[in-house]
Amino acid sequence: MSGLGPALLNSLEMGLLLFVIAVGLNIVFGVLNIINFAHGALYMLGAYLAYTLMSLAGLSFWVALIIAPLGVAAIAVVIDRLMLRFIYHRDVADSLLLTFAILLIIAESIRSIFGSNIQAVYPPDALQGTVRLLGGSYPVYSLFVIFSGLVILAGLWYLFNRTRVGKIMRAAALDRDMAEALCINTRMVVTGVFAFGAWLAGVGGVIAAPMRTIDPGMGDKIIIESFIVVVIGGLGSFPGALLGALILGAIYGFGGRYFPEFNLLLPFLGMALVLLFKPTGLMGKGANA
Amino acid sequence: MTDPILKISNLTKRFGGNTAVSGINLEVQPRETIAIIGPNGAGKTTFYNMVSGRMNPTEGKIELEGQDITGLPPHKISRMGVSRSFQINNIFPEMTVQENVEVAVTAFHGHSRKLFNFASRNRAVQDEARELLGKLQILELADRRAEVISYGDKRLLEIAVVLATRPHLVLLDEPTAGMTPDETKRTTSLIRQLADTGDYTFLITEHDMDVVFGLADRILVMHRGENLFVGTPDEVKAHPEVRRAYLGEEEEEEASA
Amino acid sequence: MKQNILIGVMLVAIALLIALPWYAPFFYIFIFTEILILGLFAVSFNLIFGYTGMLSFGHAAYFGMGAYTTAMLLLHQDWPFVYTLFAAMALSGLLALVIGFLCVRLSEVYFAMLTLAFGMMVFTIAHSWRDVTNGSDGIAGFRIKEFGLGLDLTIGNPTVYYHVTLVVVGIAAVILYIISRSSFGMILKAIRQNPERVSFCGLNIRTYRLASFTIGGIFAGLAGALIAPFLRVASPELMHWSMSAEPVLMSILGGTGYFLGPFVGAAMFVLLETWITSFTESWMLFLGIVLALMVMFFRKGVLGTFLDWWMNKND
């Protein structure tokens, strides 16, 4: 049973990282009714910006952690002002098509600038090395990932439960009529929400950079994982995003240990099961056609 | 008295803490025209949504010709002979007027499962569609795109689509809302003619009292989700509580408008 | 009058396609084989998107399934080519039926997301199940020994393969066209414009959506079956999401509102690709920009915009 502790910590690490990214996707969907297919590309952009700042500009990880997500958010503002504003009032299909095009543009720009090779950045000195914990040796950086995830979770909880803006966002995500009644679709709010979602993706990208490889395919993997998280948890539900992320984290953490040959398929099977028995997700409601 | 075509017992719908429809009982006789009146928010549309399968009731039972249809999905209820219109136009905007009706005729006859015929050569379906357009007096618009015809004509087109599935029970949700006085008059007399054929049973929600009194055999007055009164038009006109709760308010609205 | 002009243009185009090997440079035989195959792929996608209103971002799964089926049957079983086409259609259709069953039950947004996710699942399987799919190298080294139907054709000859493709794609296009104009097709169009009204006409729209999705999958599988001998390999890239992007872009480029729109889009796509990749590697980047501009400003596509303008002229 000595493997149980590390598996649990691995699950928590994966789950919280996925939560940070998926909740951004969920906020944008909830308030703007757009599934942002470029969300994974924005995450990748965060990782590449961190790589640029650290490896090429020689800045520290901590500086990159502040600047890179803001850079991603700034790019999101440009995307919103330049492109998305044309289609907010059109059919849903158009927003899906456009964010898909943005995914292609970002992913291929990165490929043509940085090439297809794998890049790497290293954790700051303070976060290197391993500690002994729960009967296994465990990288300090992984503890930092868990800690960061918890900080963002707490911050989001505060935002959604203790601030006016957050309460409106949460209510709007669950009830579209209410969103319209509150005139929530004003330009500032739309741009702000889209940028905030992108910022979360960027944070996820920077945090993931030292633990995962940086390559032009990293966005594909994470967007699929985020989709699985929100389908399991329920589209538009923030507690659902946490639940979904922790479940998927556990599938990776424990599934990888006990069923390595099915590791890649297990998340999809989990998603298919949820779709069969509770199509709107474990904590979602009212998404039926 | 014959068996009722529609029997509704204790129909209730709650959204969270709000009760939109509360304990409605109603028996509708075949070939009857019943108007449902009440101020905005009285629960008329919610009532329709439950009868047509768009929403599940919280409590209560809906029986159609003796069969329990409570909570069935819309397509099954439609198959059993209930058809409805919506308050907001609900047509196929990019099709021609005639094609709009053809879709419903095709669905009714089960042609919709045919993959290898040419729909544009299906004379039987087209003739049936044109006959319905004739009944609604919009045949001359048959080849126009549905999104470009006038608002009033769209309302008539939707009625044609509703009738194309040969329903026994027709639910019309404010058929004359937003129409000009002339269009309202024309529509009222058209519905009157359809009712007089004896082929249909109508439930009609309506704000325009002239339309209501001109069409209804009986009137159900709803107020805050509850059944305030059911009676003939004359009884409704005479009922003091109804006058206070609904007709009075209507006059106030007109006075302030 | 205008109808007749259109029919005339069509007949000339068909004649030009048949006679292509006798007047065009050899290189264009490959280009047009690819256009025909990808055109069929795009038309099969547009039955789901342009007609039924469901945006599938995982259509490459069925394309790839067709390619793998043909490649593996040729490699391991030495089946006659024509039979592998039917097998490819059957297996792709089955895959679309299973995935579609899970996806069509939910709203449009969910549908787009789920098709992408399941598409990537199929890609992941093709990429990782080395024993069967040979991993990222894919299935190669197969040969068409026999055509089938008692015909003795040298498929290895690009000109012969072009004509085989033209006939197969032509038959498939006619079948899809008839479906699109049938009563069933009319219901699909109605579902795109107003699903609620259709269910209040007594039809279970899930059944029709699933049927449309499955038919789209079947013909994507046929296109995939044709591409495997053309590329001489069936590899996981055929199932990647960037491959799913191609029919999306072709349909938007040509126009989703007309049956032939995706074919026109496929022709533009392949010709542009050939031209652009001759001086830059960023073809996909260019693709993204074109897709974005088309969606923002030119939603009816090239054929759609032209035909709408031309049909309304002098009316």
Features:
heterotrimer; A: 289 residues; mainly alpha; two-stranded antiparallel ribbon; 2 strands; globular; B: 257 residues; alpha/beta; Rossmann fold; 6-stranded mixed β-sheet; 4-stranded antiparallel β-sheet; 10 strands; 39% helix; disordered C terminus
Description:
Chain A has eleven helices and two strands. Chain A is mainly alpha-helical and 289 residues long. In chain A, helix 1 runs parallel beside helix 5 and helix 2 crosses helix 3. The termini of chain A are far apart. Chain B is an alpha/beta fold. In chain B, helix 3 runs parallel beside helix 5 and helix 4 crosses helix 5. Chains in contact: A-C, B-C. Chains B and C meet through helix 2 and helix 3 of B and helix 7, helix 8 and helix 9 of C.
Chart the SSEs and their pairings:
The complex is a heterotrimer of chains A (289), B (257) and C (315).
Chain A: H1 4-32, H2 39-56, H3 61-82, H4 92-114, E1 130-133, E2 136-139, H5 140-162, H6 164-174, H7 176-181, H8 187-208, H9 218-233, H10 238-258, H11 266-277
Antiparallel strand pairs in A: 1-2
Helix pairs in contact in A: 1-5, 1-6, 1-8, 1-9, 1-10, 2-3, 2-4, 2-8, 2-9, 3-8, 5-6, 9-10, 9-11
Chain B: E1 6-15, E2 18-28, E3 33-37, H1 44-51, E4 59-64, E5 67-68, H2 74-79, E6 82-84, H3 97-109, H4 123-135, H5 151-163, E7 169-173, H6 181-196, E8 201-205, H7 209-215, E9 218-223, E10 226-231, H8 233-238, H9 240-256
Parallel strand pairs in B: 3-8, 3-9, 6-7, 7-8
Antiparallel strand pairs in B: 1-2, 1-4, 4-5, 9-10
Helix pairs in contact in B: 3-4, 3-5, 4-5
Chain C: H1 2-23, H2 26-51, H3 60-77, H4 81-103, H5 108-128, H6 130-133, E1 139-140, H7 158-181, H8 183-193, H9 195-199, H10 205-231, E2 233-234, H11 241-254, H12 261-276, H13 283-297, H14 301-312
Antiparallel strand pairs in C: 1-2
Helix pairs in contact in C: 2-7, 2-10, 2-11, 2-12, 3-4, 3-10, 4-5, 4-10, 7-8, 7-10, 8-10, 11-12, 11-14
